[in-house]
Please model this.
Amino acid sequence: MKFAAILLATAVASSSAFVPSVAPLRTSISLDAKHANNKAAKKAAHNRPKKSRPSDINRKPTNYPTWDSPPEYTISDN
Model:
């Protein structure tokens, strides 16, 4: 019985090492990063080739044909 109590006390004492400690002076959880890093999309857009030819700079967006979508439901009187 004493061995089980000692074993339980040691388990409780060693498990407290894995519990995160609470800092009493600091209530913020932020990491306080000085400079935010560029994310992948912003970095990829930064590294894209620049438009240097006037034909590229003045190019208008492509006009794709538009069509009316068919009705989703057809009511039949059968």
